């Protein structure tokens, strides 16, 4: 059933997946109905074709009677990968940068990001601190966001895409929570030279405008690493760039 569920999630036909995974459509049908038990190698081939996240692949192996093949270590135990995360975060200074998991729970942050997150109330500051909850919650940063309707609409679309892609546990509840926050209706709120939807907000240091980029690891084999994204907030205008360079405690 897991294979069928993910095949339908990806909107792929049995014939399409069977050809790509180099097995017969009949064999794939037997696997989907439980009449045939796939080998660990076959599970990985099918999951490769369906772009199944590593956490969910482990469920495939368990359902077939095998031990999980993809380990899950905390960030602190990821060795050179943890070093890479820390290096990217530090290298982004003075731009705020955070490492988050699949549900946007904060795993690590550079000094610039900590500066902007330092004033959150205790119930939002965590741990874990959820970046989306902290941004959209009425008691969080929402009151500081100038284009809250526009930014909220963008965030909700992003969470829905993440849920569709990963089926990660906790994302559906997070989406429902975020949708329940009061917010103005989205408007364009866009300057004619905006390249992306910016995050415009007031901070204790002045008004800022950010665009962001997400970085992920290529070819991960660990569940934690598969779910980590490093999100960096770059200045969307000259005034923000100048403000970031003047932040206390950050390295320009």
UniProtKB/TrEMBL annotation:
Pfam family, one: HTH_31
Gene3D superfamilies hit by this protein: 3.30.450.180, lambda repressor-like DNA-binding domains
Classification via CDD domains: HTH_XRE
PROSITE patterns: HTH_CROC1
Source superkingdom: Bacteria
Residue ranges occupied by any HTH cro/C1-type domain in the UniProt entry: 3-57
Protein name (database record): XRE family transcriptional regulator
Species whose genome carries this gene: Kribbella speibonae
């Amino acid at each position: 059933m897991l294979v069928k569920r993910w095949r339908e999630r990806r909107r792929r036909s049995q014939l399409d997946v069977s050809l790509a995974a180099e097995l017969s459509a009949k064999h794939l049908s037997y696997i989907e109905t439980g009449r045939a038990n796939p080998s660990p190698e076959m599970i990985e081939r099918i999951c490769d074709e369906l772009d199944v996240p590593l956490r969910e692949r482990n469920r495939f192996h368990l359902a077939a009677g095998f031990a999980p093949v993809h380990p899950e270590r905390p960030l602190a135990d990821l060795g050179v990968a943890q070093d890479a995360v820390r290096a990217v975060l530090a290298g982004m200074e003075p731009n705020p940068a955070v490492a988050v998991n699949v549900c946007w729970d904060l795993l690590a942050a550079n000094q610039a990001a900590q500066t902007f997150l330092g004033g959150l109330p205790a119930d939002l500051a965590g741990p874990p601190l959820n970046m989306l909850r902290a941004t959209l919650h009425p008691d969080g940063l929402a009151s500081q966001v100038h284009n809250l309707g526009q930014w909220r609409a963008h965030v909700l679309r992003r969470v829905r895409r993440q849920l569709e892609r990963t089926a990660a546990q906790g994302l559906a509840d997070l989406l429902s929570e975020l949708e329940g926050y009061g917010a103005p209706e989205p408007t364009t709120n866009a300057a004619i030279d905006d390249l992306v939807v910016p995050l415009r907000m007031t901070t204790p240091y002045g008004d800022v405008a950010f665009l962001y980029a997400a970085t992920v690891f290529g070819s991960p084999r660990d569940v934690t690493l598969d779910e980590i994204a490093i999100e960096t907030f770059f200045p969307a205008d000259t005034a923000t760039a100048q403000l970031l360079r003047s932040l206390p405690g950050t390295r320009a």
